[in-house]
């Protein structure tokens, strides 16, 4: 349970906190490592420093040994002890061991360790009256007539000064570490703050924006933030298109429906006042025809809206134009509209793949087909074919096609050859053109020999799809 | 007489056959039936230290102080023996044998203690927070005012050498100093002299040649100067001399101007002290304002050598003062071979009795 809360908290963590956390843990780990190293170094440095004192004192004492009447006698120099007193609070142990292992002077209970280094100077650790201490042993050899042998000088000291020095070194390093670490952390926070400033600026710009303003944002921001801005701009552009197509749809619909609805109403008024049964039937017949045509108009307008919407929002897929042709033919509307017209399907064995949205293409094909059935002359042919680079979905009939004026003005919103009489070829062509352009294609008109007219949706062929 | 007594004392300490009843003198301060007793072993004469101890006992009805007066060598021997055997002996040890105390501390015989007062002491007057210098006493030259004409009074060691130089010096055989074998303090002063300046060799030679007397104990030496048996005494503890001089105008005192050794008696609390709390209270008392006033009245803090006294009446200049600092380098003074050599050197001038 709490792990989820933790995850949520982690996801909401500010960038500053993230960087501070990362830098902080880096410093912490580094700090621990450096502190350990500093402690080791401090101990080593303190050991060497004070070992030298010990050796210095032991050498002083060894140098003071003379042979008096055949026996070594140490004339302890004060300087040796003043040297040792540089560690002011440490106790001093010393012993001068004669040729036969007897104590010449000093503490009898200091014992030479059995295993010692080979050289003239060696060190060992042992307790001194219950306190840990460090000792140096210096060897002096005598080769006199009266004395031949080795005299050892042991000088030792407790460890207070060493420990204090080691601690001091460590503490200084640690202090430096804490100061520099704090500075680094502050610097990191400052850097992150300044790096994230553009984000705040962008956020502010968004907040200040008019709700209807969907124009692109200024992309002069740091590269990392530009990615976001560009995505936002793309999103807004799509929103803008959908918004305006919706507006268009509404105004088109209002504009195009007003006349047929008014005509219907006038006919209905006429019918209500007509007393002659024969004429009244004729009026009702007209009303029926007009409402069918009005239904068709509505269908077309809705399909145009659908196409416009999908062209922006639907995912592009590989679509076989032959499948689209089949589906348009099978949709059944045409059989209702003009059951007497003969429609032929003309597709080959080879697939005709394009990158598009299948329902949009289908809408376009149906509109072209409807135009051909309603305005052209049969027989009507529907086909899909590719010629290496271009894939096309086409409709052919034996008529002359629409007049030049209509061809040129396809795509302007209020094109209607005669919407009031229910023959809205312009709208169908406009839908087809929108679809073609939405998927990188175009709408083509051709007069075919010997007679007839072909309208085609031409797209770039998708390579490498069998 | 004195020598014999000290020999007996030494034997008692070394053999450990007798209970430590061999001290020179004991005195009980405070009520006999007090619930707590503080045993103080000291080299300071009882009548000199009495005022200080009385002031301590006065405000503390629950404490009595058993004050034992010892010679410095005996005190060192006894304290060392207690330390080795773990016997509960003294609660407080106060000695003028600073080098001996340093050795005791070095041998882990002392208990640690810290308070605001001990921390207030200069670094040279404490070591390891186990020993503390509580007095300031110069080593002085004492002379007989009637026997020594004012022009002859030696202001420095060089003056003293000059007095002894002539063949027919009236001071020949009339100079006294401590016997360094019998007196730990005498040994310390002589040893410090030997480290301090080359005059020591010449002085030793002069004293030996003129048949100077080496004897024990401040009181005997000073009395000898007063009676005229001696005309001069070298390296006498100033606090005793000052005490005598105040009651006896035959005695004159000089602080040598070339340098004056300044001794701080050392207080140490043995590790196995039975009454640690009162021992610490006693130390704090001695370092407190009241304690210092008492010490000053007992002349144990000499005028002019006090840190916080502006009275520079008899003072020597600060550069001439040689305080005997409490440092481990004093261990050298007690080194077996060093001591043997030093005493042999000294005996060359002062053949023993």
Describe this structure in words.
The complex is a heterodimer of chains A (466) and B (353). By secondary structure, chain A is of the alpha+beta class. Chain A has helices spanning 2-12, 15-63, 78-84, 160-195, 197-208, 223-273, 277-313, 321-330, 333-337, 358-375, 404-408, 425-438; strands at residues 65-68, 71-74, 92-97, 103-106, 121-128, 131-143, 148-158, 317-320, 343-347, 353-356, 380-386, 390-397, 442-447, 453-460. Chain A has three domains: 17-168, 2-Layer Sandwich (Beta-Lactamase), CATH 3.30.450; 211-313; 315-466, Histidine kinase-like ATPase, C-terminal domain (Heat Shock Protein 90, 2-Layer Sandwich). In chain A, the strands form four sheets. Chain A has a five-stranded antiparallel beta sheet. In chain A, strands 9-11-12-14-13 form a five-stranded mixed beta sheet. In chain A, a hairpin with a 4-residue loop joins β6 and β7 (148-158). Chain A is rod-shaped, with a radius of gyration of 51 Å. Mean pLDDT of chain A is 83; it is low at 415-423. Chain B has 353 residues and is an alpha/beta fold. In chain B, β5 and β6 (131-133) form a beta hairpin. Residues 1-21 and 309-313 of chain B have low confidence and may be disordered. In chain B, α1 (2-15) packs parallel to α3, α2 runs antiparallel to α12 and α11 packs across α12. Chain B starts with a helix and ends with a helix. Helix content of chain B is 41%, strand content 18%. The chains are: A alpha+beta (466), B alpha/beta (353). Chain A binds chain B through residues 73-78, 80-82, 84-85, 88-92, 96, 104-106, 128-131, and chain B through 105-108, 123, 127-128, 195, 327-332, 335-338, 341.
